[in-house]
TrEMBL record, chain A:
PANTHER family per UniProt: GLYCINE CLEAVAGE SYSTEM H PROTEIN, GLYCINE CLEAVAGE SYSTEM H PROTEIN-RELATED
Stored PROSITE patterns: BIOTINYL_LIPOYL, LIPOYL
Subunit structure comment from the entry: The glycine cleavage system is composed of four proteins: P, T, L and H.
Alphabetically ordered keywords of this record: Lipoyl
UniProt keyword Hydrolase, yes or no: no
Cofactor(s), by name: (R)-lipoate
Protein name in UniProt: Glycine cleavage system H protein
Gene3D superfamilies: 2.40.50.100
Annotated cofactor note: Binds 1 lipoyl cofactor covalently.
HAMAP family per UniProt: GcvH (MF_00272)
Limits of the Lipoyl-binding domain: 22-104
Family: Belongs to the GcvH family.
Gene Ontology CC terms, in alphabetical order: cytosol; glycine cleavage complex
UniProtKB/TrEMBL annotation, chain B:
InterPro entries xref list: GcvT (IPR006223), GcvT/YgfZ/DmdA (IPR028896), GcvT/YgfZ_C (IPR029043), GcvT_bac (IPR022903), GcvT_C (IPR013977), GCVT_N (IPR006222), TrmE/GcvT-like (IPR027266)
Organismal lineage: Bacteria, Pseudomonadati, Bacteroidota, Cytophagia, Cytophagales
Pfam families in UniProt: GCV_T, GCV_T_C
Protein name stated in the entry: Aminomethyltransferase
Family named by the database record: Belongs to the GcvT family.
Chain ranges of the Aminomethyltransferase C-terminal domain: 282-359
A cellular-component GO term for this protein: glycine cleavage complex
Gene behind the chain: gcvT
Length: 126, 360
């Protein structure tokens, strides 16, 4: 299982890559394996300011649909539009090509309480 | 409640299958990728373990009388070596279960029922057995392997002397298969891609599974999970009990009129005959999504003005088509093919269109 050390994680199996006061969000290798073949990522919240824990979109595998939750509060700046045509990037490359949204953090210090790679590994029993 | 295990449980786990609880059984939902598994069945051949299904044997001089009483199709039309799709109507207009009925010999039939309904079906049939037919539940004695796909017959031929290409759809033979005696070799399936279903004595399951995989290797055989079984059957518009049909849906509403024969008297037949003659208010239809969105069980179906006209009972992204497909009940006046409808997907109304079955 690939759990990069340089990212932050949530118990909802999302990852966060912080770049200054902005952050990229996606789902973890563990999450994509659990979901199976991903066929659709729907994000209709670009330009909206969303609180931590609220839904910013949905990810659909062949069999299931799952909500995507904001790991931290912020304004959604961008949706990874390459996922429109290639949702399978979330399976193939969850931490790079499979990123889902870029956001402007409401409070940059809010990322401090996210899980480290070590803590996330423990959560999923790795 | 502890999950029941099929005879091949350990083999699935060794293969790295993702296991899920289904109808009280620990079952493989996928081995590698659902999309790959789906494609394997459509283009080559795959093998499913569906040993959770139930097998009842009904025998004796009154066996047919009992079957005719509880089932909707006309089992008197069966000849030995032939199988029939049927359903068990309840007394209130719904369906107890759908099933296959095999005529094993003049006075012996096998009923193959859904795993989730084994106990319910058994009790239901038993409660109508005023005929004194002999009933045996052999669900735990049989494993069931479905070998499905356009290459299934070719791939399996070396395992049996039965001429598989010559085995007509919905017929079967009881013969030696993979060195095991008394295997029911049936030209049936739930995928629309052709192939066999093999009813194997439980103790022989592992041997048959391994030989099926070996024999199929040169044809690209793969083990297939229940996930792909569901997408394959949805593309064909085949009903799944608990989704598209249940205790509250009538066979006429579910467009199972073709297995509801009024050539005989059966449970609730008078009421169903009336439904057939007078028409019903809602019908089960298949549909394609026009705009992007994936229908799921329980989503509302709307007319073009946005009024609720029904509900989705099964839905997925079709692996073959690459867009959403589904089944659901709609008001009868919207059930004609090519009628535009909408599906409520979260907060959006997504355009869809009623389609003839199969959906691919």
């Amino acid at each position: 299982m690939n759990i990069p050390d340089n990212l932050k994680y949530t118990k909802d199996h999302e990852w966060v890559r912080v770049e200054g006061d902005e952050a990229y969000i996606g789902i973890t290798d563990f999450a994509q394996r659990e979901l199976g073949d991903i066929v659709y990522v729907e994000v209709e919240t670009v330009d909206e300011e969303i609180d931590e824990g609220e839904v910013f979109g949905t990810v659909e595998a062949v069999k299931t649909v799952s909500d995507l939750f904001m790991p931290v509060g912020g304004t959604v700046l961008e949706f990874n539009e390459s996922l429109e045509d290639a949702p399978e990037s979330v399976n193939d490359d969850p931490y790079d090509k499979g990123w889902m949204i870029k956001l402007k953090l409401s409070d940059p210090s809010s990322v401090d309480k996210l899980l480290s790679a070590e803590e996330y590994k423990e959560l999923i029993g790795e | 409640m502890e999950l029941k295990k099929v005879p091949l449980n350990d083999i699935h786990e060794q293969l790295g299958a993702k296991m899920v609880s289904f109808a009280g059984y620990n079952m493989p939902v996928s081995y590698t990728s659902l999309l790959e598994e789906h494609k394997t069945v459509r283009e080559a051949v795959g093998v499913f373990d569906v040993s959770h299904m139930g097998e009842f044997f009904i025998s004796g001089p009154k066996a047919l009388d009992l079957i005719q009483k509880v089932s909707s199709n006309d089992a008197s039309k069966l000849v030995v070596g032939q199988a029939q799709y049927s359903c068990l109507p309840n007394a209130t207009g719904g369906i107890v279960d759908d099933l296959l009925i095999y005529k094993m010999s003049e006075e012996k039939y096998m009923l193959v029922v859904n795993a989730s309904n084994i106990e319910k079906d058994w009790n239901w049939i038993k409660s109508h057995n005023s005929f004194g037919a002999v009933m045996e539940d052999q669900s735990n004695d049989y494993a069931l392997l479905a070998v499905q796909g356009p290459k299934a017959m070719d791939a399996m031929q070396k395992l049996t002397d039965v001429n598989l290409e010559g085995l007509k759809y919905y017929t079967f033979e009881v013969d030696e298969f993979a060195g095991e005696k008394d295997v029911i070799i049936s030209a049936t399936g739930y995928t629309g891609s052709g192939g066999l279903e093999l009813y194997v004595p439980a103790k022989s399951a592992e041997n048959v599974w391994r030989k099926v995989l070996d024999a199929g290797e040169e044809f690209g055989i793969k083990p297939i999970g229940l996930g792909a079984r569901d997408t394959l059957r949805m593309e064909m518009g085949l009903c799944l009990y608990g989704n598209d049909i249940d205790d509250t849906t009538s066979p006429i509403e579910a467009k199972l009129g073709w297995i509801t024969k009024f050539t005989k008297d059966f449970i609730n037949s008078e009421n169903l005959k009336k439904q057939k003659e007078e028409g019903v208010d809602r019908k089960l239809v298949g549909f394609h999504m026009i705009d992007r969105g994936i229908p799921r069980k329980g989503y509302e179906i709307l007319d073009m003005e946005g009024n609720t006209v029904g509900v989705v009972t099964s839905g997925t992204q079709s692996p073959n088509l690459g867009h959403g497909i589904g089944l659901g009940y709609v008001k009868t006046d919207l059930s004609k093919p090519e009628t535009p409808i909408q599906i409520a997907v979260r907060k959006n109304q997504i355009k869809a269109v009623v389609k003839k079955l199969p959906l691919i």
